[in-house]
Specification:
Elements: H1 32-53, H2 55-73, H3 79-87, H4 91-126, H5 135-144, H6 149-156, E1 160-162, E2 164-165, H7 175-193, H8 198-216, H9 228-262, E3 275-276, H10 290-318, H11 330-337, H12 350-369, H13 388-404, H14 408-425, E4 431-432, E5 434-437, H15 438-452, H16 463-473, H17 489-508, E6 515-519, H18 524-536, E7 540-543, E8 550-553, E9 556-561, H19 564-578, H20 581-589, E10 593-599, H21 601-607, H22 609-630, E11 633-639, H23 651-656, E12 666-668
Parallel strand pairs: 1-12, 2-3, 3-4, 5-6, 6-9, 9-10, 10-11, 11-12
Antiparallel strand pairs: 7-8
Length: about 675
């Protein structure tokens, strides 16, 4: 909470009334603005608190704040005094106190987020140089250390940072609350820009009061737990609110900075590659079924199609150039002729006609792969695009044509952002990981092996015999079962999920489900079991045409080492796994990358924070050494949560703190 000296009876920074207050530790210099914002928000909460529940609750909140602040400044323990104060307080007043300080914390965090962006804007406007953690500063550091432009460019072409969105019970805020906080952030930003207009400032503060009142009369928690469908929609909200705009802008920044500093433009649309676990993570979640996986894939793809279709529709309105005034390229003229748009009102507008045809082809592609196509049907039935690459080629033709008649600025500002969005999100939006516990894989294979006559008791086999059994299965393309009739529910459920994943690959390509994560991976057999199960549904392929069987996988198979003991044993397991010839073929076919996930949350729970951090560090070093000795490239997937207890913290510092060699140009978090 606050250590501000601002008294509840002192005049607030503007027209706000008195109220409980939260503030940054420093409200001078560069932090003056955020201190002012937080004091204002505190006063607004105080006003709403007094108005809604009365003076008694207000006085209790203000009294608690004063005790906490004064005792902390005097280095005294405030607990005894607070216990005395609250021990006799009415339970309803205590609930009001909890809600008041809860909302204050969220509002203060929002003000700090706004302030960080304000500081970045200030530094840009002041020309004070690149800030720590920025792309420009990072490139400058590399240059200062004598790294050649060619070496930097080579790394950038293959670099990948993959943030993976998960649904987790630590995120309990409702969509309604997040929406209100977004409006508060926008209003605070407007307020900082309107400092020279008292009337506008007063109007903004009145709007802020409305938002605070809305929060006060809104329940912070839902009455019921979110369904998986709700969790998927919660994640997709981030794409609509920011990611569709910010990721293409970031990729564009990389291109611009590399051109300025390296003398060549480096293109890498996968530099940020979004991922998700929502709808694919079955470990401990019985609600994630084949139907839910299909839903997750549908909603993701539908969101991508919807945004691209809207982009094309918008471009068709923006690019109004007339053939009476400009001459389009032959490629654009051909697109216009093939568009099926014969309206006399657009007869001389080749770009509009071309883009309407492109819209119709993309819509037709969506109709092929989605159950519910977003948006109204187009003006004509045209042949669908085969894939996103065909759409990208047409957008390139539009951009090149604009440049040919002096409209390159329109290509850069209107077409290029659309092209980048298609390039980054394609038609699948993001990669959906599958995850399941190794114990479930063992149970499923035990039944499949028993039914197919491979072995009567797989679970009783020692590890060497398990490995031999699994390698034998990976040497033959035949499935274990012709069907699942009579199988247990767990076998039917697991195979249904895997078949749905195979269906998603056929419809949207391998990028839609790129990884299979194995929880509680403790041995080589835990990894090979997944390869056998994927073979059962056609996601691992066996070629027996040559002298030796050749194995190829459509997914990365990712062991997750979670407990302290598992982390200590991780390098030994990886070394033994990569020594298996058939599995090594899978890694080599996946461009030589082996991904390994390390768990922060479970290791924290297992050994405590300090022990967890030390063992995670040691595990990474040993995994790096094992991968290097085996001649493969290691990609680490960090299971870091939002809180410190779940491995959270500033990502920039966390990446810099990794052991040497642990980040080889690619990282997932």
């Amino acid at each position: 909470m606050d250590d501000s000296t601002h008294s509840p009876t002192t005049a607030p920074p503007s027209n706000s009334g008195a109220g409980p207050n939260v503030s940054a530790d420093s409200t001078t210099g560069k932090d003056a603005d955020v201190g002012d914002d937080i004091r204002l928000l505190g006063h607004l909460v105080g006003e709403v608190l007094r108005e809604q529940v009365g003076d008694d609750a207000f006085e209790l909140v203000e009294s608690v704040r004063t005790i906490a602040v004064s005792n902390r400044r005097d280095d005294r323990d405030p607990v005894a005094e607070l216990r005395s104060k609250l021990g006799t307080a009415d339970i309803h007043q205590q609930l009001h106190l909890i809600r008041a300080f809860g909302w204050l914390s969220l509002l203060a965090n929002t003000a700090e987020d706004v302030h960080h962006e304000r500081r970045r804007r200030f530094h840009r406007d002041a020309g004070s140089g690149a800030q720590e953690g920025s792309l420009a500063r990072s490139f400058a550091k590399l240059d200062a250390h004598g790294i050649t432009p060619q070496a930097i460019a080579d790394v950038l072409r293959d670099i990948m940072v993959a943030p993976v969105i998960t649904a987790h019970p630590t995120e309990v805020r409702r969509q309604t609350v997040l929406t209100v906080l977004t409006r508060v952030a926008d209003l605070l930003d407007r307020r900082s820009r309107s400092a020279n207009s008292p009337s506008e400032t007063a109007s903004i503060e009145a709007e802020l009061r409305v938002e605070v009142l809305t929060l006060w009369q809104t329940a912070v928690l839902r009455l019921s737990k979110l369904r998986v469908r709700d969790e998927i929609n919660e994640a997709l909200r981030y794409y609509r609110s920011s990611l569709f705009e910010t990721l293409p802008a970031l990729v564009a920044d990389v291109g611009r900075i590399t051109t300025e500093l390296l003398g060549e433009r480096v293109e890498n649309p996968n530099i940020i590659s979004m991922g998700s676990w929502i709808g694919g993570d079955r470990d401990g979640n019985p609600f994630v079924t084949a139907t839910v996986l299909q839903l997750a894939v549908e909603l993701q793809a539908s969101s991508a199609f919807e945004h691209h279709l809207l982009d094309l529709n918008t471009l068709s309105f923006q690019l109004s150039m007339s053939a009476r005034l400009i001459t389009p390229s032959p490629a654009v003229a051909a697109l216009a002729e093939a568009s099926g748009d014969d309206s006399p009102f657009r007869a001389d507008e080749p770009y509009r006609r071309a883009l309407r045809g492109m819209h119709a082809r993309l819509w037709a592609r969506a109709a092929e792969v989605l159950d519910d196509v977003p948006g109204p049907a187009p003006h004509a039935d045209l042949a669908p695009y085969a894939d996103a690459d065909e759409l990208l080629a047409d957008l390139e033709a539009i951009a090149e044509s604009l440049g040919s008649h002096g409209a390159g600025l329109l290509a850069d500002t209107k077409v290029e952002p659309v092209r980048r969005r298609v390039e980054i999100f394609r038609t699948h939006l993001c990669g959906l990981d599958m995850r399941q516990n190794s114990a479930v894989h063992e149970e499923v294979l035990d039944e499949l092996f028993r039914r197919s006559g491979v072995t009567p008791d797989y679970l009783a086999l020692p590890e060497p015999d398990r490995i031999a059994t699994l390698v034998a299965e990976l040497s033959t393309p035949r499935p274990l079962l012709a069907g699942t009739e009579g199988c247990s529910d767990v076998v039917i459920s697991e195979l249904d999920v895997l078949r749905e994943a195979a269906s998603a690959h056929r419809r949207f390509g391998a990028r839609i489900i790129p990884h299979y994560v194995i929880s509680k991976a403790e041995s080589v057999s835990d990894v090979l079991e997944v390869a056998v199960l994927l073979k059962e549904v056609g996601l691992v392929h066996i070629d027996r045409s040559g002298a030796t069987p050749q194995v190829r996988s459509e997914l990365d198979i990712v062991p997750l080492f979670e407990t302290i003991d598992d982390l200590r044993n991780a390098a030994t397991v990886l070394d033994a796994l990569l020594a298996q010839p058939l599995y090594r073929q899978i890694v080599d076919q996946r461009r030589g990358w082996q991904e390994v996930m390390i768990g922060y949350s479970d290791s924290n729970k297992d050994g405590g924070y300090l022990s967890s951090q030390w063992e995670l560090y040691r595990a990474q070093r040993s995994l790096v050494d094992a991968a290097r000795e085996s001649g493969v490239r290691l990609r680490l997937f960090h299971g870091r949560g939002g809180t410190v207890g779940r491995g959270g913290g500033p990502s920039y510092e966390a990446i810099l703190a990794q052991p040497n060699g642990a980040v080889q140009g690619q990282i997932r978090v």
